[in-house]
Amino acid sequence: MKEVQKSKKFITAFLATIMVMSTAACGGNASQNSSSQQSAEVSSTTGEEKTGYDTHVELSWFKEGITGHEINYDGDAYGQFWQDKFNTTFDLTAATMDDSDWSQRLRIWINSGDMPDVAHWGFNYGELVDYAAQDAVYRFPDDWKERWPNVAASQECVPGAAVAEEKLGGTYTLFRTIFANHRPSERLSYHALLYMRKDWMQACGVEIKDTYSPSELEEIATKFKEEDPGNVGSQLVPISIRTYDVPKIYPGTYFPQSINVGDGYYKDESGQFQWAPADERTLEGLKKYQNLYTSGLLDPEFYTLTRYEGTEKFYIGGTAGIVLDDGMGYMIQSRMENGLQKNLGLDPDEALHIAQLVGEDGKYYYREDMNFYGSIIFSPTITDEEFERAMDILDFCCTEEGQEIINMGFEGEDWKRDENGEYVSLLPNEITGNAGSILASKYPTADVFFGGVILGDDFQFVTPNYTKETRDTISHFYQLRDELCDETTLLPREYDYEFYSSRTKT
């Protein structure tokens, strides 16, 4: 299947405004995350160990975020391990993380009855209701939790999983859990961080600190524009941020009801449903963006920027001074630090400053994460044997051994434990070639991993393939956000309406 080729043009300011209003109402379906009341620790036992299968199974598998790399599971020991252990061949189809490619292709396949056996999906509850009613996706056996207890335990970490199961009368999807065994805080905040050119800030006399408000960012961006400390010239972009992320600054830092709620509806103090894009506070945010845009502080291409294009102007092009993006290990170490050094010859310690976006009052604003990013669905025509094999694979991925192999490679060859039981990497501390991680520098198939139901965010706090400084940075900002918020700024989820199938709230 061919990938959808995207072609976007910068259109009128009016349409850009409409787009910003839309994204102000939606933090993105795939990232509709919120904290669970308790973190149900995933078991490290597999029950009956799977040592081999008599029948070979080929699984077609759709996965986002693995484009740009060759898919060849026969090419190294990492890919071969998964094929040999489960007597399986993975027929992987890669998608970008852009919704028009990832989710739209899958919609077409589902509606045409031609979806892959296993598919990673951005998740939309309304669509899931329709798919379930039409038998367009696979319904799990009622006893699946007993057969695959480790997958079941991962779903207990996601409150929305139980809500969806109850409303649908069964299980139709597996939520991809963000934190299962290494929850960083009781209330889960969104991980986005500010990445700023530290050397430019120092050259302009800007204070280096942990938090910045929107007005402070505007002041810093103005200094970058006026003084051009990096001698970038006409290519200088003081702030580069795509439309998906702009609502996090305005209106998110004073109107958190407007973000990360799917369709933009929220309950006001009287319990009535309101639509955030129609609120005066959203209009206020749009006016602020208009000022940033017309003053030359906001990337003039912000409307057309795809997933990483804005951020790449920071660590590849060297033309951006401030970006807002994921605050996870892969972004901090693999993209930012490694990118600045490899692409621009800069010392990250001197060129990179990481900080937290806060409101003008110094508090952190957002909505609690649901603790999942997307989900996994299965074809309604998948055979019992294929489904069971895929679930056996996913169940193993949830065990301690599975998590270690996924994130670190093989014990004794790629990592070991020290006298205190801590993980120690045996791999060179560098990212080589086109690899996206230290592990993929040795095993290229790690960059095209088919994906389990526990995301790499969970293991990032303990993996030795991230430096202690990187791990400490991630933990620090989770703790800081927790300290800087309360229930009026980090809003609790309201599942009673977020899992309505219709956008009409009644």
From TrEMBL:
Claim: Signal is one of the keywords in the record: yes
PROSITE patterns: PROKAR_LIPOPROTEIN
Biased composition, class Low complexity, residue ranges: 29-44
Signal peptide (residue range): 1-24
Translocase among keywords: no
The entry's keywords: Signal
Protein name listed in UniProt: ABC transporter substrate-binding protein
